[in-house]
Amino acid sequence: MAIGERIRELRIKKGLSLTELANRAGVAKSYISSVERQLQLNPSIQFLNKISRVLDVTVEKLIHENNNENEETDIDIEWLELAKEAMESGISKEQFKQFLEFQKWQKSNSSNN
């Protein structure tokens, strides 16, 4: 399900019209409509933050396809923060992959001794 479909579904479940959601979130009704109709496929994080607050859900719930409350596959917030910190420090994906490979190699060598 696309982001727009999830927003529409949550809006309807909450009993909100497009106008009510737009007014409460402080965004244009036409923009919400274009997101829901999938004319706008890449809404900004600011937009998603505003909408998620009114709909009482996390931004992640709007973005991710699988939103089962019982699923244990959600990424730990601390891991997300560490990944964000690594990105902000200038580490490339390739450098991070090399670091992980080194850690795996080091662990396998220490368990062999």
UniProtKB/TrEMBL annotation:
InterPro entries: Cro/C1-type_HTH (IPR001387), Lambda_DNA-bd_dom_sf (IPR010982), SinR/SinI_dimer_dom (IPR010981), SinR/SinI_dimer_dom_sf (IPR036281), TransReg_Diox_bact_type (IPR050807). One of its GO terms (molecular function) is protein dimerization activity. It holds the Pfam family SinI. Coiled coil: none annotated. SUPFAM superfamilies: lambda repressor-like DNA-binding domains (SSF47413), SinR repressor dimerisation domain-like (SSF47406). CDD domains: HTH_XRE. Residues 7-62 form the HTH cro/C1-type domain. Residues 66-104 form the Sin domain. The keyword DNA-binding applies. Keywords: DNA-binding. One of its GO terms (cellular component) is cytosol. The keyword DNA-binding applies. This is Transcriptional regulator. The lineage of its organism: Bacteria, Bacillati, Bacillota, Bacilli, Bacillales.
